[in-house]
Amino acid sequence: GNSVTQMEGPVTLSEEAFLTINCTYTATGYPSLFWYVQYPGEGLQLLLKATKADDKGSNKGFEATYRKETTSFHLEKGSVQVSDSAVYFCALSGGSARQLTFGSGTQLTVLP
Amino acid sequence: DAGVIQSPRHEVTEMGQEVTLRCKPISGHDYLFWYRQTMMRGLELLIYFNNNVPIDDSGMPEDRFSAKMPNASFSTLKIQPSEPRDSAVYFCASSSSGGAETQYFGPGTRLLVL
Fold first, then answer.
1. β-sheet bridge partners, residue B65
2. Angstrom distance (rounded) from CA B90 to CA B77
3. What is the rounded distance in angstroms from the CA atom of residue A106 to the CA atom of residue A11?
4. Each residue's pLDDT tens digit in chain B (114 positions)?
5. Touching check for B45 and chain A: CB below 8 Å?
């Protein structure tokens, strides 16, 4: 079955540091890949997505590239801000079921 | 667009009581999902509907949990009787078959069972 493995947290960075959160997946076929972000006390929001191999999703300075050869979808940002502090979830969707398989989430804290 | 609407936002109840959580999906979306989030187990899919029909309820923890979707704009998740281990944040999400598989989440209902 489908599964998503995310880098264990929590991650603590200083403002303007470089961020990488690793995500690898196992899936049959050609899934779509997503990063969702959850700010304190809120629901999950879509951050970015990629629907086919070699696609790059980007939003708010965050980027992730769909790497089929390494089954990865690592999230990166060149310079984090305090406002980026949140929990980040990697997820995949495949087939007609429309279900998302989520990773366990990575807590990011950015210090001023 | 108002987004996915959930009510109540917070619920505190005593063990044994019935709890009903409500969700209004985004208009035009034909998929609706119920999730539970806890520190111990993370984000779990409980059940999802397509065109108001339950498709997969394998994530529903036990018979105390039930979900309905009487029409395209309303769904409920009921717990009867509630237990302290049901304390969690419950999210509703919706998506459209007409586009990519992006799910849009509501703000969640924070449930505390004493």
1. B79
2. 9
3. 7
4. 689 999 999 999 999 999 999 999 999 999 999 999 998 888 999 999 999 999 999 999 889 999 999 999 999 999 999 999 999 999 999 998 765 678 999 999 999 999
5. yes
Quick one: DSSP state of residue B72? T
Token pair 């009510």: residue: B7
Tell me how close the Cα of B112 comes to any Cα of chain A, in angstroms: 15
Query: Nearest-CA neighbor of B60 among B75, B74, B72, B48?
Result: B48
CB B35 within 8 A of CB B90: yes
Yes or no, beta carbons of B105 and A51 under 8 Å apart: no
Q: Which residues make beta-bridge pairs with A73? A: none
Q: Which residues of B touch A100 (CB under 8 A)?
A: 33, 45, 101, 103
User: Residues of chain A whose C-beta is under 8 A from some C-beta in B?
Assistant: 32, 34, 36, 42-46, 49, 51, 89, 93, 97-100, 102, 104-105
Structure tokens at A12: 């603590």
